[in-house]
Amino acid sequence: MSENGWEGRPLELRLGPPGHGGFCVARHDGRVVFVRHGLPGELVLARVTEDRGGSFCRAEAVEILEASPDRVEPTCPVSGPGGAGCCDFAFAAPEAQRALKAAVVTEQLRRLADWETEVVVEPIPPEGCGDGWRTRVRLVVDADGRAGVHRYRSTEVITDLRCPQPVSGALVGIAERRWTPGAELVVAVDGDGLRHIVELEPPRSGRRSGGDRRTTAARRAAAHGPRRERVLEGSGRAVQYVAGRRWEIAATGFWQPHRGAAQCYSDIVADWADAGPGALAWDLYSGAGVFAARLAEQVGADGRVLGVESSKPAVADGIAALRDLPQVDLHAQRVERWLDGRIGGDTPQVIVLDPPRAGAGREVVAAMTACLPARIIHIGCDPAAFARDIGLYRTAGYRVTRLRAFDAFPATHHVECLALLEPA
């Protein structure tokens, strides 16, 4: 290999199984090559885009020499080779997309949880796998004030906004306007069909130069830290509905991006929880309390639902939405800290948790299982983190009795998994 390894080198590759992250695995001269824009079984000409040495490198399929029968005309014009990272599987038929995700989840569970199971990825009703499903979009603004998305694994901004993910009307007129250079835009279309646009001021560290790890880490921390907001369209308060209940939340706050996801997951929680009248239930990482509301219906006026969420604004929004349910008590606190005081206390009949992408982790799973709940409903949006958590539950003496996976992010590699766990 040259000083820069294989970077820029063309390789003819036969693609193997899908990997976690939107690529297929191939091999060349004893090394693993992670190839985007290809499907299992295809023969492709790939260009190596990144090689840092070691056992693997990254590449993109720039020419399809033998196509899979599952290949279709790409639905996203900005996500192909050299483009954005928005639609990893825009060139695959919907059924094939779900099969790819099912294979990844199955492999992660086998490898990280030592659990063999056949996973099926379902479309979210009612739309299924298609375009126009995303109600919330976060855009970046380049130095010329044009809104766009990042090129895959790059800070470069692509100002082509033709991605098919957003719901109809979400991005109308945005490409024609000029915004604050270096800022970000949050676009949210709420349950009443109203569009909200909020501009987040440029992160302070974004002005720094250099590319070492400390600078990159500081830039990422600033981008995800508190930033001044300016409402440019709408009220900045998005109205949402689940199971006949109305929420009003910050347009920049968390809400499931797929237009049908919150209702879908809420219905499953209500089905699996089986919390009896007078029971105690916990909703961890509760957000604005969507699951807490369904649990409250089951435990009734004589029961209790304790919700925990680190975001104070989300908790405030949840308290306002659930003010007619006195059995619900939402707390603004880190889940790990809140659980510290629960060991030896009242035993919850059911625990529902929807942790961030990194998963719940060893500390949280240990604290929950030590309380011996009859049921745990775990929701995860990252197959690897989800599988690691399932492995921790199994070690702690819980077994998976129900598992469902959903194509909550069509045309991407992302997938949402829900598991019901009960004592073995």
TrEMBL record:
Source species: Nocardia pulmonis
Keyword DNA damage set for record: no
Q: Where is the composition biased (Basic and acidic residues)?
A: 202-215
Q: Where is this region: Disordered?
A: 202-229
Enumerate the spans annotated as TRAM domain: 4-63
Q: What is this protein called?
A: TRAM domain-containing protein
| An example Gene Ontology biological process | rRNA base methylation
User: What PROSITE patterns has UniProt attached to this entry?
Assistant: SAM_MT_RNA_M5U, TRAM
InterPro entries associated with the record: NA-bd_OB-fold, SAM-dependent_MTases_sf, TRAM_dom, U5_MeTrfase_fam
Catalytic residues, chain numbering: 381
